[in-house]
Amino acid sequence: MALQAWSSARYLIPLPPGHRFPIEKYARLRDRVLAEGLVAPDDIHEPARAAREELLLVHTPAYVAALTDGSLGHAELRRIGFPWSEHLVERSYRAVGGTCEAAEAALRDGVAINLAGGTHHAFPGHGEGFCVFNDVAVAVRRLQHLGRIGRAAVIDLDVHQGNGTHAIFAGDASVFTFSMHGSRNFPFHKVPGVLDIELPDGTGDDEYLSQLEPALPMVLSSAQPDLVVYLAGADPHEGDRLGRLRLSFEGLARRDALVLAACREIGIPVAITIAGGYGRNIDDTVEIHRRTVEIARAFAR
Ligand SMILES: [Zn+2]
Questions:
Q1: Measured between alpha carbons, how far is 57 from 145 in angstroms, rounded to an integer?
Q2: Distance from the CA of 1 to the center of ligand 1, in angstroms?
Q3: Beta strands across the sheet bearing 227-231
Q4: What's the 158 CA to ligand 1 centre distance in angstroms?
Q5: Each residue's pLDDT tens digit, 58-102
Q6: Under DSSP, is residue 99 helix (H, G, I), strand (E, B) or coil?
Q7: In 10 A of CB 128, how many CB atoms?
């Protein structure tokens, strides 16, 4: 079975020169997975725009309205880190749509991927840290709302803590939130999830994987999920400008394989989002995401 992927790479956002968000990584990743035949052209889909009602399963009406019509204040936009434009709105709606569609495909195929998303710093009423809407939370809530799933687990292995996701699902016993991240990385005020593993600066492959491996079956057995959403951030890599951990390409690939194997072992579908990645060399970030696609492909049924 071929891996189904969603790409919103053609929805660019105009950024001022020198802006540190690597928006080009999405198109480069799409081009590489196509060039290498990891995903067939017919299996890379353009995401539909998420519906406003879907966003409202997570976000406040005031925030969705202000983001959409361009009336967000200066401070709110600065917190997100992007200038407002129609393009930003379109891309934000499409990126959520991609995760919603990948989550649905995962229920059918075992695994599917959004070559975007993982915007885990978005809260119900505001965005921050390059995150506008919380695609992961919308996808989970939407499938619950449709009666397609009851319980879910979020496995967030981006180097930054998924503070927005944790806040959204706090007190909700149907969603297990697990995050492993750099303790000294943004956000500086962390929001507790069900399970947080905080790692010191410079943590390398062996220490990282030795903590992850036993945690995964524990998370899955407590969560009893019908779906896992996995945030496969590239930013724990040693070459990342923002991440403070020191994982190698191989370590990150082993991480992805551990997550997918643990879920496969007990038959839980996994929707993958690529989340963050700010390599000093953008090709490194693209290479990490490309390997995630390659590994996911081996797990699609
Ligand atoms: Zn990150």
A1: 8
A2: 30
A3: 44-45, 5-6, 111-114, 270-273, 227-231, 152-156, 175-182, 195-199
A4: 5
A5: 999 999 999 999 999 999 999 999 999 999 999 999 999 999 999
A6: helix
A7: 19
